[in-house]
Amino acid sequence: MHLSPRAPLEEPKPDLYTTLCEAPLIKSVFDQAHLPYNELGATVFALLYAYGLTEFNVFIRGPAGLSLIGTNSLLDVGTLVMPGQATVIRPNVDTIYAAAIVDLSKEGLVVTLPEMEADRYYAFSFFDPYGDNFATIGSRYASKSGEYLLRSSVGTGEAGITTKDCSSYENCIESPTYNGVLLIRVEVKQNSTAELNYANSYIRSIQLNATNERDSSISPLTPADVNVSSSFPEATLQLLANLGPRNPPQNQALAEQLPSVLAYAGISNNKYTPLPSVNLTQAYTLLNDTLTTFYASPTSRDILSNGWTTLSSSYIGSYENGTAILGRAFVAAQGYGANTPDQSIYPSPSNFTYSLPSSQSLLLTFNGKPPLLPDGFWSLTLYNDNGALVQNPVGVYALGDRSGLTYADGSPVYGAETGGDRDAEAFQILVQAADVTPPANWTTNWLPAPAGGGSFQITLRFYSEEEALLTGEYVYPGVGVVDAIVH
To answer: What share of the chain is helix, strand, coil (3-state, %, to 5)?
Structure first.
């Protein structure tokens, strides 16, 4: 994939060009993004490569969060995510979250998977700090309850689930980095006390226990490692200097090529030294331009129907053993902690951001129920421009198969009384300003947008989806701007 060419920024640096010729995996990123062969280009490459580290730091709430939570212990949220609560971009409101900051520098980690009732989605997703979902156990894979050993495989090129040297456990999980995140999602079928209690009870029965302590030259993760500048580009480069050596690329060729190129960005010997020749504001602008151009490239996305697209499977959740650097950076910016497509997909309409006055609304017409596996579910969630939930007086942040949607005649789209003969029948969702209340017959199908009008984004989520949602067999909802629907 090649992005649209740009005018060169400053003169190329011959010695960097020579270095890149000996680092073909990295040179391909420079060429795809049309980065200049100089310190500025090397700095933007470093920002692209390490974008996920900054989101990792946001996720763990920086040094204060790491001091409070520690590593290898589970923190559960206890409720569905509400506006202002999320530490991840574009959170879902379908599941209860729990998470652990992983540090395998001195020990392995035994994760006990409790037994789950049938037809309820749950996932234990393992991420490296850059955001690569290198392994998942849960309902999608019919994982057995029991003990799973998470262990370091740094330097081997291995990652994922294995049975090798693993006779005492259900499976072993090879982590390509020493640090990372275990992110647990448990479906909440309705926002009710009973459902929340069940999900929380399940999470409280999960156990994380250290094992296989070993003598290692790698220092444990400490708050000092993530105590960095408040400036995004400087913080990202500092985090790469601090965390990069203990969290090398899974791809061994990339691991060998990386240090010599990062030196041109001022990163060497576990330290970032600002370069007089590089303006970080200019580097940050070029970084954002690069990601915008990447998203606009047709080859970065899979075309679905009715203008809906999803990122190519090479650029979501798992990133070609860490070599799909542009895609990994884009997803880190838009939704750190995204799953791989075999677990869930996140389609967006052609207009990524809508800006409407309160006199206008968005109307989505679904051409039947989205096809899902038995433990699957779906939702449509609304966010502001920063990927955060939008506060509204009715407390509705997403609509989907568990939210009481109705057909035009008022009968429920989902429920025991809804037979399969209506699976292909159309239904609609109205996205309308929170302070413009629609008629009563729209109440269950109303997703509130910002009060007074404004800009927003919408994302569909399909967990445990059927193939028809990826192959084009299912027709995605039509999206149209209409006059606000009022009494």
So the answer is: 30, 25, 45
Contacts of 487 (CB under 8 A, 6+ apart): 437, 439
Does 303 or 41 have the greater pLDDT score? 41
What is the helix (H) or strand (E) element at residue 76, kind and residue range? strand 75-76
Among 58-72, 144-158, 414-428, 438-452, which stretch is predicted with the lowest mean pLDDT? 414-428
Residue appearing with tokens 């149209």: 480
How far is 359 from 379, CA to CA, in rounded Å? Answer: 25
- For the entire predicted model, the pTM comes to 0.89
In terms of C-beta density within 10 A (0-12 exposed, 13-18 middle, 19 or more buried), how is residue 94 classed? buried
Residue 190 to residue 94: CA distance in whole angstroms? 9
Q: Which two tokens stand for residue 77?
A: 């949220």
d(CA 25, CA 324): 10
Q: Three-state DSSP class for 251?
A: coil
Confidence class of residue 4 from pLDDT cuts 50, 70 and 90? very low
Tell me which residue of 187, 157, 152 sits closest to 172, measured CA to CA. Answer: 152
Taken in order 411, 446, 456, 187, the sign of the CA dihedral is negative
Q: Where are the alpha helices (DSSP H) in 297-400?
A: 325-335
Beta strands in 299-391 (DSSP E): 301-303, 309-311, 344-345, 354-357, 360-366, 372-383
DSSP strand E in 157-306: where?
A: 160-162, 171-175, 179-187, 207-211, 267-268, 271-272, 301-303
Handedness of CA 2, 243, 216, 61 (dihedral sign): negative
pLDDT attached to residue 418? 56
Residue (of 184, 188, 214) closest to 112 by Cα position: 184
The answer, yes or no, to whether residue 7 has pLDDT greater than 50, is no
Return d(Cα 169, Cα 285) in angstroms, integer.
48
Structure tokens at 302: 């899979």
Rounded to 5 degrees, what angle do the CA atoms 314, 320, 324 make? 75
* Dihedral, CA of residue 377, residue 308, residue 54 and residue 96, to nearest 10: -10
What pLDDT shows up at residue 62? 84
Selection from 221, 187, 183, 218 nearest residue 202 by Cα: 187
